[in-house]
Amino acid sequence: MANNNRNALLGAAFLMATSAIGPGFLTQTATFTQSLLASFGFVILLSILLDIGAQLNIWRIITVSEKKAQDIANAILPGTGYFLSLLIVIGGLAFNIGNVGGAGLGLNILTGVSPEIGAIISGSIAVCIFLVKEAGKAMDRFAQIMGFVMIALTIYVAAQTNPPLGEAVFRTFVPEKLDVIAIVTLVGGTVGGYITFAGAHRLLDAGIKGKSSLKEVSKSSVSAILISSIMRIVLFLAVLGVVSQGITLDPKNPAATPFSYAAGNIGLMIFGIVIWAASITSVIGAAYTSVSFITSFSPKIEKHKNCWIVAFIVISTAVLATIGRPAQVLVFVGTLNGLILPISLGLILLAAYNSKIIGDYKHPIWMTISGAIVVISMAILSMITLVKYIGNLLA
Fold first, then answer.
1. N or C end of the chain: which has fewer CB within 10 A?
2. So where does this one cross the membrane (predicted)?
3. pLDDT digits (tens, 9 = 90+) for 2-32
4. Phi, psi angle pair for 230, to nearest 5°
């Protein structure tokens, strides 16, 4: 396989993984670790299995059909592609406001500039990536570098907090307590909404498609889940090391506590780098993927897609800088991401048995079964979560 293809496959894996690792990812991981302690390991394990089941199906069908998700959906049931695109773009825009906010907070910690100014600077950096000639390659390389930086720094902090590894391993398989909302949030935050499509659409744009590419695409899709899961596990251990010593996380910024505990002010600076890297890569991934859901609807959008991506980032940054981060909207959209997954994955599974879409390709039965399990379980769990969320609002 050509070197360009290898770079694109690695870039797609990191784009998807770093799109998942945003400020919400850091906060959720810290918060659920504090409430579930070592048993959160079981939730992580379960979410990894569900994530792989979802992502393998989606990436393979997109690759073999050589169509983007919205076009597959429209081919299955006319109009559903437009509906799916609407959900993705709304969710992506709302999340990007939070992502830009996280980047602003990171620069605030690192340099002392206000979070709003930090957001504007970060948004400008993201825009610059899409103004260069080889924007796709620049995006791939940036995602890889930031991914390595985040994981390496968090491993250092986890080692300093001295987590109870034996207890963490044991409770990963024999949990003391479970939380349905945690499962939905983790799966929705890793492969829900736009995130799982980030790498698959990137591979199509890089020209990696067709049955001949399935083996490499499958490896890339699982690698993407494993990269984001490594970050999740390492952060879980870092937080567990702190809370198991009776230390309460800062409610305003729970993910920062293990960093400051492990290395004082230097640790806080490390957290600033981690949250900035997590946020800026999510800004790029959300903008790129959201726009990829509308490019096939008009040749003009496809021709000027980088301009549309820039506009998406500018709007997200402007909303954050002027209105702020609408917390309740972000929480609701997080639940919406969990609901989008059974819809999008359900349509993909239907496409797997439509010869007009996939030709003579035979989709493995075990993948269909694993995908169906994800669709059914996430639909039920998401509805339970949504009912709880609405109940809390009305209470």
1. C
2. 36-54, 75-97, 109-130, 142-160, 180-200, 221-247, 267-294, 306-323, 329-353, 365-390
3. 667 888 889 899 999 998 888 888 988 999 9
4. -60, -45
